[in-house]
Design brief:
The chain contains 3 helices and no strands. The protein is mainly α and 74 residues long.
Length: 74
């Protein structure tokens, strides 16, 4: 049912966590299903991110995004 490489990695991760492979699969499925809205729409990882950075940020961040992210001017 599962490709051998995926099965092997799944068993290894379950062993690392100290749980059964079945429990690992159930947890993975639960997590995947919780992330998918029932409407069938794909969620946007950027818009769904609720993390907030409380530290200082440049006031021109949106204008000079490439410079801040990649160190280069457009």
């Amino acid at each position: 049912m599962l490709p051998e490489e995926l099965r092997r990695k799944g068993f290894a991760e379950a062993h690392r966590r100290g749980i059964s492979f079945g429990e690992f699969v159930r947890d993975a499925m639960r997590l995947a299903l919780d992330r998918t809205p029932q409407s069938g729409m794909v969620r946007d990882s950027f818009l769904d991110d609720r993390a907030v950075y409380p530290g200082p940020a440049p006031v021109d961040g949106s204008t000079n995004l490439d410079e801040y992210l990649y160190g280069e001017k457009p």
